[in-house]
Design brief:
This protein is mainly alpha-helical. It has one domain. About 75% of the residues lie in helices and about 0% in strands. Keywords: Membrane, Transmembrane, Transmembrane helix.
């Protein structure tokens, strides 16, 4: 993009910049969500799945 920066419209560069900023803000949230998800016990291995099925 550096070769042809003069031919890229400003609105396109601004949209690309906004997309990069949005991705940079969302990525840490998704990583934190994944880490919290890893911290919760799995219902199948902890035995809670059978209790849930009994309620149904």
């Amino acid at each position: 993009m550096a070769e042809h920066a003069y031919s890229t419209p400003a609105s396109t560069r601004a949209a690309e910049s906004r997309a990069h900023i949005l991705a940079a803000l969302i990525a840490p949230f998704l990583i934190a969500l994944a880490i919290c998800g890893l911290g919760t016990p799995d219902p199948v291995t902890s035995g809670h799945a059978t209790a849930i099925e009994a309620v149904r």
